[in-house]
Amino acid sequence: xxxxxxxxxxxxxxxxxxxxxxxxxxxxxxxxxxxxxxxxxxxxxxxxxxxxxxxxxxxxxxxxxxxxxxxxxxxxxxxxxxxxxxxxxxxxxxxxxxxxxxxxxxxxxxxxxxxxxxxxxxxxxxxxxxxxxxxxxxxxxxxxxxxxxxxxxxxxxx
Length: 158
Known about the structure:
By secondary structure, the protein is mostly helical. It has one domain: Orthogonal Bundle (2-methylcitrate dehydratase PrpD), CATH 1.10.4100.10. The chain has helices at 6-15, 24-44, 48-57, 78-90, 104-118, 127-147, 149-157, and strands at 66-68, 71-76.
């Protein structure tokens, strides 16, 4: 309808995405992005800032937990696992970028993996649905950047 809000329209587009929208090229590229992000994140677990946020996050506990990358015995609630792993990914600023300036995978992958790990065993999501969630996250980030006049002005500010 003509009364559809921008936010409502955006939500409908995102909600309508499914695994059939993942072309072979998108799957291959997103697998490469994921592998790169995991590699940078594992390297980043050795940084001082990552150690600080991991120590800070230890005060939070939950029955539902997700892994801190590189430390299989260290688990946190999904929100904090995503935070610590996201800091690890971005801590040396080697994570992927695109224009307008952003680091797409470092924001999306830690959240998607932390949530996927938190599902109970009988409701585990498939690898294809994990790829879908990752790509939806990247798509949301890209569209929000396109809507943002602040993001468009970043190159002029530097």
